[in-house]
Amino acid sequence: MALLEVKNLKVTFPTDDGLVQAVRGVSFSVDRGKTLGIVGESGSGKSVSTQTIMGLTRGAQVEGEAFFQGEDLLKMARRQLQAIRGRDVGMIFQDPLSSLHPYYRVGWQIVELIRAHDRAISKKAARQRAVELLRLVGIPRPDVRVNDYPHQFSGGMRQRAMIAMAMALNPALLIADEPTTALDVTVQAQVLRVIGRLQEEFGTAVIMITHDLGVIAETADDVVVMYAGAVMEAADRDSIFYDHHHPYTEGLMRSLPAYGDDRQRLTPIGGTPPSLITLPSGCKFHPRCPYVMDRCRAEEPELEPVEQRYWHTSACWLPHSGPGRQEASERVYGEAATR
Amino acid sequence: MSGDVIIRATDVVKHFPVQSSGLRRSRDVVHAVDGVSLEVKQGETLGIVGETGCGKSTLARCVARLYDLTAGRVEFEGHDISRLRTRRLGKVRREMQMIFQDPYGSLNPKRRVGSIIGDPFAIHGMASGQERKRRVQEMMELVGLNPEHYNRFPAEFSGGQRQRIGVARALALKPKVVICDEPVSALDVSIQAQVLNLLSDLQKQLNLTYIFISHDLSVVRHVSDRVMLMYLGKVVESGPSGQIYARPRHPYAGALLSAVPLPDPKMMRQRQRVILAGDIPSPIHPPAACRFHPRCPKAQARCAEEEPALVARLGDPADHTAACHFPLAEGENLAEARPTLAEELRVVEPEAVPDGAELGYDGLAERSNP
User: Which of A123, A299, B162, B168 has the most CB within a 10 Å radius?
Assistant: First the structure.
């Protein structure tokens, strides 16, 4: 059984301008010890999905189910969910400075988190645990730095302190929402390494939310590609990179300045993402899709298996098996779809 | 297509005084750029790449004379512009324009797009009335905006379109040089490709010279003829972009390239990653001699005593230079000294190591801040 299984999640926000359809029927699951990558551009609903599951979206209308260790998070009482957040599910966000309280010492904040979930742990024991955690994520002289304020840490150290905090109670699941977007390349490598090693050591499941396909390639076992609040394609990592089916996934790959390529012209996806208030008819990607057909404008496709592989699904009207998909790609781009 | 040298900077130095706090006056300075020379030829793209705080933006702003230099010299088309004052500088500015990173912060939200793009004409007292409107609409068309949107506000445009507005404004006066400071960093991948293509089309069409600044190594590789890699205010390696990416000489270049996550799982599995210990040291008190030595996996005693010169190695093209006493050999693997998992997670206790001696590559161990 999957550790977390989200089924048909819908999230809408009523606003003065109309109903914002942030997430429109998203399903995914994560197994113990595995990493699920959720990739998408701004407004694709990738962050809203996980925040909603954890009860962090206020004023939203939520439908669907999210089973975590057999219990539906969306039907849980607030207190019960509060107990799970932090203890069973750790979270890391993009901006570590705004997630750490500037007024309190880093160590104090970790101690507080530990004791909020278990008052039986003495302050002294909790503090020892905080030092140990900071050491684990590679903070130098953790016994001294535990008394620092967040502003005394560098960006990379703050992000690692956040990871220490998220891992404090040995959660079964870690949700990392753009954990390295604000960081430099070398620091990003350090942070990803820490997450990976902790995962190996403790068997934590990770949901890695990012717009960076490089981070996905490095960390994810399975990948979900989101666009306009829905899943466009879901598969194991290698299928997403080398055997993708959905034109949006293909467009994302083609628009990257491939490393190792010289100054070739890029192939961007034309147009801009749709407004989540006035979504296009049919397939939400159709106004930007180079393969668009009449059917795409009228009917929204559902996720269907590609080549009868149950773990690889794509929401697109192009043929799901046989040579039809490849032929379409050759027609549009003058070459095969996959590298 | 590249021809004569259009910009030449020699030993540019830029220091910023550190703000004094309270009664204590500080004499410390931030060594943002410390003796950097560069040459840009007509029609080419020079990429400047490096991590936060390496001085890449400051250097570009010195070249554009948005900052006064602390020392050094900048020539534009053979004329020294490093001491020019306001009025004469205005003429140079017309030829050298900038595009900024943030398409939200760099456009005044209360002004109409037409008037924003028309600003350069207003500032330089060129083209007014109908003539200005005509030329602004020409620019809008050039960058792929609908000229009929002349009277709209920035908020009515998406991020990518706003960046096009920035490009139109920069090109309004037909400059020769455009300095692009992280022009695509704030954009989504699919939009980023649109803007990169636009910049490259315009370069060909108008024979523009670009100085392209970015922290994104794959973007810089994609757009640049030549690349300069900076670390803590100095150039560590410089050369034709193909050369640097294929055969980096400086250990920092090697480590940085190995750390970039590639959107290609197969390549990622084959690649040996080097994870540098620690953070970039403070630019107020940069390390002596080679500034990279405290984090360098190859550092030896000489690196802390003698500053390496930026020179070409035997067998490399003359314009591929690196500032290192112990440059990487062809195919040398920096990651060979890779520690085991246990070593990596159990950080070296600083007490056990004399201060300043943590030169070795020790994974996540971090050099303590002074």
Answer: B168
- Cβ atoms of residues A274 and A16 within 8 Å: no
Write the ipTM: 0.84
Interface test with B, best of A151, A163, A248, A259 (most B CBs within 10 A): A259
Flag if B263 and A273 touch (Cβ within 8 Å): no
Q: Do A218 and B261 touch (CB under 8 A)?
A: yes
- CATH no., domain B5-18+29-231: 3.40.50.300
User: Where does the pLDDT of residue B350 fall: very low under 50, low under 70, confident under 90, or very high at 90 and above?
Assistant: very low
**Domains along chain A?**
4-223 (3.40.50.300), 228-333 (no CATH)
On the question of pLDDT at B333 being above 90, the answer is no
> Alpha-carbon distance A19 to A38, whole Å?
24
Contact A193 B196 (CB under 8 A): no
pLDDT at site B361: 33
CA A293 distance to own-chain centroid: 31
| B242 near A CB under 8 A | yes
> Model confidence at A174, in pLDDT bands (50, 70, 90)?
very high
pLDDT in tens, A221-233: 999 999 999 999 9
CA distance A79 to chain B (A): 35
Q: Choose the closest CB to A272 out of B158, B279, B347.
A: B158
* Angstrom distance (rounded) from CA B102 to CA B81: 28
Give the three-class secondary structure for B19: coil
This prediction has a pTM of: 0.86
